[in-house]
């Protein structure tokens, strides 16, 4: 299992569970997360979704070994990816999504926060969008959602620099709503989740729908452009060199 799923007090908790790979997303985890999000949306007993990671990371992003395998094997690259399946499920999620960032959030481990309604971060957590260091384009409509969330210049730094941002800076930017001591992270996130979950589910859905509906055309347009740019750069000289260096170091 790559994803733990549990229910308590109308809160469905999803725990990314590939700690040996710092919860990096492979195809199996993308699909499992998408399926879990859709199941939560369809379950009349679920009011709120809480997403966090197992071990010391939130998510180390896309599984780069799998990315390199897809570049080297044209039959794999032609199959498409469940990355898009998960992004569609996030975009369509009708219920509040709370993310509890317990450790490093790299790539999709940062850009997924653009779909969250509330983000809690551990004081020891850090975020990074490593696209320029990997020689690729942004993903997950982050080129649209991050400027909406944190403003043009904060988003520009995140997307252009490939530098780490600590929890205090993430809160200043507006990515993190609250920063907690590591031991307080999940209790605080759950406490707030249960406050929301005590409300009328149809009302929660109506509020979220009216908040996110205006953004959906922008998400769709950004996703189309990002995907085209990503495929153009994937396997190019800068990307190939970055992936070779990464896999040569034997990291997960």
UniProtKB/TrEMBL annotation:
CDD domains: crotonase-like (cd06558). Its EC number is 4.2.1.17. GO terms for molecular function: delta(3)-delta(2)-enoyl-CoA isomerase activity; enoyl-CoA hydratase activity. InterPro entries: ClpP/crotonase-like_dom_sf, ECH/Chromodomain_protein, Enoyl-CoA_hydra/iso. It is found in: Peroxisome. Keywords: Isomerase, Lyase, Peroxisome. This is Putative enoyl-CoA hydratase echA8. It comes from Mycolicibacterium vanbaalenii (Mycobacterium vanbaalenii). The gene is echA8_12.
